Amino acid sequence: MTRDEVRNMMHDYVDGLLSADDKSRVDSYLEEYTDVAGEYELLKKLLNKAASLPIGIKTPETLLGKISDELLSKSLEKIEEDKQKKLRQLTENTEAVGEKRKKFLKTHDFNRDADKTSSNDVQNKKVKSVNLWITLVVMLTIVGAYLLYDFLNTNLPWQVKSNYGGYTIVPVSSLTEIDADQTLNTYDSTNVSVFIPNAGRIDVRSFSSIKVIKGKDSDNVISLLSGKIYGNCKIDDPRLTIKTNTADIEVVAGKFTAEINDYGDLYIVTNNGKLKITTQNRELVLVKDHRCKISSSGIVGIPIHIKTNHQLAEILEQINYDDKKVNSYDLILQLSSPVDGITLLHLIMKAKSEEERLPLFEKLNEFYPLVPGITKEGILNLDKDMLDEWQRDIEWQL
Amino acid sequence: MPEPNVTYIKYLIGLSQKGRKNSFLELCELNLNKVFAICGLCLGDVKIAEEVAKDVFLSAWHNLKFVREDTSVNSWLRGIAVFEIMEELRTRERRQRVYPNAKKFDSTVYNRVHTNNQFESTILELPELERTIFVLHDVEGYDFDEIAGFFDDLSIDEIKKIIRTTRASLVGIDIQ
Description:
The complex is a heterodimer of chains A (398) and B (176).
Chain A: H1 3-14, H2 20-32, H3 34-51, H4 63-107, H5 110-117, H6 121-153, E1 158-164, E2 167-170, E3 177-178, E4 183-186, E5 191-196, E6 200-205, E7 209-216, E8 219-233, E9 240-243, E10 248-260, E11 266-278, E12 283-286, E13 290-294, E14 304-305, H7 310-317, H8 329-335, H9 341-350, H10 354-367, H11 376-380, H12 384-397
Parallel strand pairs in A: 8-9
Antiparallel strand pairs in A: 1-3, 1-5, 2-4, 4-7, 5-6, 6-8, 7-8, 8-10, 9-10, 10-11, 11-12, 11-13, 13-14
Chain B: H1 6-17, H2 21-43, H3 46-62, H4 73-91, H5 93-98, H6 118-124, H7 128-139, H8 144-150, H9 156-171
Helix pairs in contact in B: 1-2, 2-3, 2-4, 2-7, 3-4, 7-9
């Protein structure tokens, strides 16, 4: 073996690619020629060094921030994209129906052909009559198709299953299914699950009452008459609305509970869910892990995070959107922490003057610095887009 | 930074898979230096490496559902990093984005990656192809077959030859 051959084989040796015979040949050579053995040792050292390379490369400090910004903008883009997609689908569907109809009328436009080819008035009248009939048939077909679609879209009756305890469904029919206009009443120590196709599950707790208003894939509505329900929607935008005397709760996603107490007050908690609440005077989005009270007279309380400091929660429970003046801002600012981000933002929206808003803004800005596109002036002037954007940013970071 | 324990990492993955971005960012922070180091070593330019590293983590976010319980997150991320690096070397898309005036298939390093390690500095001075193949084989442990899969125009023998020459230049010995 020549020296150059051994030098080349050394690499296969360290890479574990040599046969047993070649290995022993190289070993014998290395024993004999110490200078080549020295090179072999250097090579092994190099590879050990490369395999256990300590990190000396300096990571740019901005990298993590860039990843975070990109994730945020991607999720905002996704929301916008979904909206656009739905809009596009709707437009395409409408256009397709329009095109189909145009095409149909064009190919069946006997009237025009008849005018050109016939001078006979009787013939003309006949053709017009046929045309009218065709239009009528098309219209009836469209109406029929819509009614059929509407009928097929219905997902009622819903399955009902008792986890424990007893319940009734009135007017009385099957105990395992509930249909439109039927009411489910539960007894003591009861938990009954109602399964809503393509939306999720509603658990009706003890001494509670719900009524099914509508059950369609795109429009499920129940009425919470009394007691407590727990909702678990595994898909986003399940198209489920819960109506109460004081508010309509539209489920955006996730898990939540809604309870009406003996005085008619409604308590809503979003456990990893998101709800859009509409009352007679107000509309608000209750983001995940927050709770909110709506009194029997429809007055909406300030959303409070479920992990808010106990003392602060007690103060916040006394505040609602319709209060003219709040005297406890100093204490609120003192006790608040980053989990109260959404609450502080709602207090800014609730505050009557810029002077009241300023300290709240400064505190919130300390926890969640403004992102590009949102300005202090915009927030203090209650710019809706900026408030929504900041809420999304806080919600995302919570 | 001390190595975080496996249970905690699994916990973070679980939360990230449920859509918790803050947990995912914590996961990113734990692996940021390692991922950036391999991007930096292969690409040499700090701005391009930063773009690629960012895309590695975004790609990881979109593919979180594929992380298996028995796989090390670090190895998984390094795998994505190698894929993104090779994609960049093929397409030069990030280079064009970062340096719009530069020629597309030019490998000039405009902003060299900073390191306080002498060995890394030496690797960074190697030409791009030699550097990438050396990092893939001798630092990251990819075998010749796998590396040949990344380069359409190089045979295994050619890759072996490049490795030999590169190693020789790094140890200071002359090999034909």
